[in-house]
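Field: sequence (string)
Field: structure_tokens (string)

Example rows 1 and 2, in order.
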Amino acid sequence: MRSERTHAVGRPAKQLRSRSFCRSGQEEEEKTFSRKRMNSFDREGGHCTEMAMVCLTDFEEYAKEHLSKATWDYYAAGADDCCTRDDNLLAFKRIRLRPRILRDVSVSDTRTTVQGMEISFPVGVAPTAFHCLAWHEGEVATARAAESVNTCYITSTYSTCSVEEIAAAAPGGYRWFQLYVYRDRKLSELIVQRVESLGYKALVLTVDVPYTGKRRNDIRNQFKLPPHLKVKNFEGMFQETGAPEEYGIPANTLDPSISWKDVSWLQSITRLPVIIKGILTKEDAELAVEHGVQGVIVSNHGGRQLDGGPASIDALSEIVDAVQGRIEVYVDGGIRTGSDVLKALALGARCVFIGRPVVWGLAYKGEEGVREVLQILNDEFRLSMTLSGCRNVGEINRNLIQVSKL
């Protein structure tokens, strides 16, 4: 029997409902847990067995059950009415595939490259904050999982482990670093110097947060990091003034005046390739090319910023057409299955990045849970790819998509 575990986030852990229902006389609890697909009971052998996690929504249900309400709400949050967050998912369901048959898919290969580096399959880990809220090892566990499956991990500025701790935990991992531009440019410059010296391979500049979107549940919950957790990359950089904080650092630290000149400034202080995250229009994609960046991530920040904007996958084709192969194009937002990955690549993405599912994997089993999430996506992608008649990533193209249905 899997023993009941407490939720290890470094604070006095609340006792969670047991995933077991082996005790007699608890029929209603058995039904509830069965619906949540947590465990199963082998009545013939009299053993309690853990039900396999089959898809990413299994991890989502587990995380919702086991995380505190404030933490779950933080990870799940979208801006305002959450229309864009929800449309990120729905948009993939509107896309249909055109599978080819009799193509000899007895041998298949999911490998690809991003910025010249080979990865095992075209799914990377998007930058998400505060992993220690989900699992006590936080981003260290995430980095190890990404390293173990040989894919790219974009470390968040707002990580609860430092960039040094993450690099030490997975020294052979392929890592990029996600960056914001602050009113005090020295803050951004210092962290760029740190990640460059630690072997991070690219900078991902997030450009869609001049101000933080209105996330209603975070306001209702008065969300803030518990006292034992910090935004570790800025530890000791801010004086204790008692001023209001926003997601772990002093409010109004981000610079709303950020513009294309700051992209040029960033390029002037680093040798690392610069990738822009938060592009949703062809006009901005063309400007990104003009400013010499090495890639763009088509992203609406998981629907957490401007509500009413397009789903990321709906904006992808426009941007791919605009850049015409001059730079690599990636996408995040709403990827939950291997067929979602296939659709994104068919529409021109080089690679996709997942955010919330990684946190769900952490909440389940830390490093092992993240690895399971990534492996499930890899297996599903390979199956979708071969069932569509593609033997490798290079054979995926727009002919697989029913454009008229978009």
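Row 2 begins here:
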Amino acid sequence: MGRADTVTKSSPARSMAVAAVAFMAAVSASLLAVAAAASPVPAIYVFGDSLADVGNNNHLVTLLKADFPHNGIDYPGKKATGRFSNGKNSVDFLAENLGLATSPPYLALSSSSNPNYANGVNFASGGAGVSNATNKDQCISFDKQIDYFASVHASLVQSLGQAQATAHLAKSLFAITIGSNDIIHYAKANSATSATADPSQQFVDALIQTLTRQLQRLYGLGARKVLFLGTGPVGCTPSLRELSPTKDCSALANGISVRYNAAAASLLSGMAARYADMHYALFDSSAALLRYINQPAAYGFTEAKAACCGLGDMNAKIGCTPLSFYCDNRTSHVFWDFYHPTETTARKLSSTAFDGSAPLIFPMNIRQLSAI
């Protein structure tokens, strides 16, 4: 009788526990089903720097922040969200084109009591580089971003089960934009380097060696659709132009960017050759943005050199702060501040990456990648 009583008393608790697990699994499955029905990819997992940061740095003790005016002046509600832009940035437009909500910042999600990682997460942090030494202790390094994703991966496996988590991540898009800060730091430190004594190839090789390890780790954590947004012509940012007596683009920085993008393309091609289940698209941000800089009028711009918001010559001496001046018509400027593009520039570049073709986006565009 004692044993029977024990079983009878514990059965309701066991049944409730089983029911709770089943309920949570059903909820998770329904969330994934809704996401999959609305978009060819269920979620976007974003890694990178300030070009993709949507508010992670708001949660850090750092000078590398954008959660104040005049940033966000053209964002819905004229709100400064932590985006280094007058409005939306490239990952906002990426999500819009895929019919998804912008992936929220990891540091905001992780501080909530019941974070939902199945709808996408943004790990990008203003100032981050391929190298952990780039803006060290001022941002979330790329390696740390991947550490955070490893925790998200474990959480997805726990909530969905291994098979469903693997399937979910295989369909999701992994968007990466990293390398600009490494190149900018190198170019500023070596601005007096002569062309004959240029050691920058060694610098590029070191970056790619680190990037290889990082992308390999992401693959090991389930990344199968990789969108790599290559570095732009960072030598033409107002900040680097300001270093030149003639206000010309930094040939050193732009040259490194071209070589870095080419090496990243080779790296991704090699990975895709080794792993039949991995697919990628690489956007040549350098070539795409140079079109606007070299022929601004052809693309609807009137100012391709000076920043819209800032102080000093070309608005490039001091960044965009509440005390800075800003242009009346942001759609006419390629650059918002001394490093970052305007919302208009980001929208145009995102459109090209989404539906464009080689040589700007290859071996397929984002629409094609998402449909695989």
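free_text_note (row 2): Residues 1-13, 15-27, 33-37 have pLDDT under 50 and may be disordered.
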